[in-house]
Design brief:
By secondary structure, the protein is an all-alpha fold. The protein contains six helices and no strands. The radius of gyration is 16 Å and the shape is elongated. Helix 5 (86-93) packs across helix 6 (97-107). Helix content is 59%, strand content 0%.
């Protein structure tokens, strides 16, 4: 019973590479810089999704997005680096202003 349970993480590099090779070969050059990274972050995966499928129709999928701690910190760091207010950041990442405010309170940024 003392076995460690290994967390199953999808192989996003393989998934997106297969999608690109099967249907979107013309978009491969735009995705290579992300796919060549050793580890993909949540924001990398979101960016790949936007490059491949575009932003059309993503409003429905908004409620299914989830962000891990690292992704949240990346987004908040992006805000600082680009001198953005909460409204601008929320618009850029297609998030709620309330979500940004909540994250800032949680992570004291």
């Amino acid at each position: 019973m003392g076995e460690k349970i290994q967390q199953l993480i999808p192989d996003y590099k393989r998934i997106y590479s297969d999608i690109l090779n099967a249907k979107y070969t013309e978009k491969i050059p735009y995705c290579l810089s992300i796919l060549n990274k050793k580890i993909l972050s949540s924001t990398d995966i979101i960016r790949l999704n936007e490059i491949i499928f575009g932003t059309k129709g993503n409003l429905y999928n908004q409620k299914h997005k989830s962000y891990d701690r690292l992704a949240i910190l990346e987004i908040l760091e992006y805000q600082k680096k680009n001198n953005m207010n909460n409204v601008q950041l929320a618009s850029h990442f297609k998030l709620s202003r309330n979500t940004i405010t909540k994250w800032k309170k949680l992570f004291n940024s």
